[in-house]
Predict the structure.
Amino acid sequence: MNTQPNWNSWQEMRRLQQTMEHLFSDFAPAGRWSLTGEYPPVNLTREDKAITLEALCPGVDRGSLDISVIGDAVTIRGERKAEPEVPEERYYRRERPLGGFTRTVSVGERLDPDQTQARYANGILRVQLARAPEAAPKKIAIQS
Amino acid sequence: MATMTAPTNAGPATTRREGAERKAPTVSPRVDIYETEKAYVLLADMPGIGPDGLDVVAERDELIVRGRVEPPATTPDYQEFELANYYRAFALTEDLDTSAITATLKDGVLKLEIPKSPRVQPKKIQVRVE
């Protein structure tokens, strides 16, 4: 039984959007950032100890990657550069989007910026976020 | 070079609940192809693929790129992307030296360098002055 109809239709929309992007990417001017919507796409997993944010962003220049945490928001910045010294006319096909991006995601819980850890592997940026101490559940001792 | 064959479809939509158990969809990776003096270079976006999951086969007149992802152990609480397997085939022309293809994988981008056969590489002709 489908208990989450919104999820399904949302995913269908996303798929349609991706198909359209793919169709039109052949006509997009070469080298232009052709992704529509927010980039990079992210997944969020909440666990007791941490919140993990994953961003799908292959081929980002590592030196350009920048992550900042303020309040309950994480901002990811980066840039994907073109191959150096390859003139436009040498390209037969250009489907991969290039350029800079900035995305801010609010996780809805106060975060501890000092405890943030990030790893970039296989084109996926994984940011491990820690809740701010006051946001973590605290056991209150009851005085007798 | 490199005409593209039909990409495989992305599979039917399923509910989130099935997430962890169902098979990853297969998508066609986005590619750039450019030519240098000595080779054709193909760049393919394949995020999520490690060296173990990558398969590049050049057979007769076809180059096939495949990537296999490890399905994630947990389903995210909020999800905008799903790791996918990759498949794309390219037609190879006769002027390419498929025995000397080099492949590198970095940060989810596959780079293939396919050298041109020596006989089609530009050759500088020395002019003799008489």
About this structure: The longest strand of chain A covers residues 73-80.
